[in-house]
Amino acid sequence: MKYWFRNDYSFGAHPKVLEAVCAANLEGNIGYGDDKYSAKAKDRIREVCGLPDAMVEFVAGGTQANVLTCAFLLKPWQAAICPDSGHLNGHEVGAFEATGHKILTVPATPDGKIAPEQLVPLLKLHQDVHLTEPGLVYISNATENGAVYTKAELTALYTFCREHDLYLFIDGARLGCALASDANDMTLPEFAHLCDAFYIGGTKNGTMFGEALVITRPELTKGFFRMKKRLLTVMEKGWIQGVQFLTVFEDDLYFKMGRQANEMAARLQNGLKAKGWKLWVESPTNQVFVIAPNDKKPLLDEVCQYEDWCPYDADHTVVRFVACFHTTEADVDGFLSALPDLK
User: Fold this and answer.
1) C-alpha angle 230/235/237, rounded to 5°?
2) Interacting residues of 119 by C-beta distance below 8 A, sequence separation 6+
3) How big is the CA angle at 60 (ends 187 and 105), to the nearest 5 degrees?
4) For residues 110 and 95, what is the distance between their CA atoms, to the nearest angstrom?
5) Going by C-beta distance under 8 Å and a sequence separation of 6 or more, which residues neighbour residue 93?
6) Phi, psi of 191, rounded to the nearest 5 degrees
């Protein structure tokens, strides 16, 4: 038996999401997101975020959300500042750059975060009018390395951005796990008021697909749908996304799924440590990063689906295990029992 810890989108969707989609399947709904389900879901998201005037739009995936938002908010001569480990920079094959914009990277901390003081030299350098002008800061919460921004950290970063005419956009592919983490000290409304735009990830937290993009300041949204259409991110059957997001925000389901994923990842992380496997970083969310001896990787290949993350040294590789809403204690314990002690 192989245990699935490769990512948090290996499984389709929470059963309640599928049930809701099936119930609406043959009703007949207006297309392009102009349906009743999308309208209700957008209202519900505005309600749970405490942002009654925010714009909410659905897109199919995280790369679409990142490219669309950054390209929409920036002027043609502006660039996005991004941690060097950020998804916009590292895993999107130049999709954002293909819109004509530049990415300015800053070194992330080992947990994947950046802080205001790191941006000062870059802003000073780019006062030169022959260089691109920084216009936006992109971060992820949770970060690519599984960490969570605290309220103090995010407040400091957003304050800096407002003082320097920068937008702050937050990749929320794993926002459910971030806000459900024990390391988090913010409510969703508190988080939502500390950025100009963010998205609520569904693909990696229990929907079939889809992200709910929120632009928090209405004055920034004029012409957005036309940009959404221009960048090929409007779905004809947009009502499917409306049904899904309406469902996951009923009865706290979105955060219940995030907590389940985090709890199973913590169980796995603690179990690996107890067996002598060394961690690359301590993660408080649903990703677990382990420094695996290369001679043990054939065993991992036999019992588990996982992902190589990065080289560590000549004899070790950092590998990533990811838990999701469907991960159970039996999955974790069965996998751990198949691994040798490295003590």
Assistant:
1) 155
2) 81, 106, 134, 137, 160, 164
3) 70
4) 25
5) none
6) -60, -45
Q: Give the residue among 71, 72, 74, 39 at the shortest CA–CA distance from 58.
A: 39
Assigned token pair, 35: 């349906």
What is the C-alpha to C-alpha distance for residues 166 and 145, in angstroms, rounded to an integer?
24
Q: 63-97, pLDDT tens digit by residue?
A: 999 999 999 999 999 999 999 999 999 888 999 99
Report whether 73 contacts 220 (CB < 8 A).
Answer: yes
Closest CA to 191 of 221, 219, 152: 152
- Token digits of residue 262: 């985090």
Tell me how far apart the alpha carbons of residues 308 and 33 are, in angstroms, rounded to a whole number: 38
- Residues 306-318 have pLDDT tens digits of 999 999 999 999 9
User: What DSSP line would sit under 309-320, residue for residue?
Assistant: EEEEETTEEEEE
Q: Phi and psi at residue 127, in whole multiples of 5°?
A: -70, -20
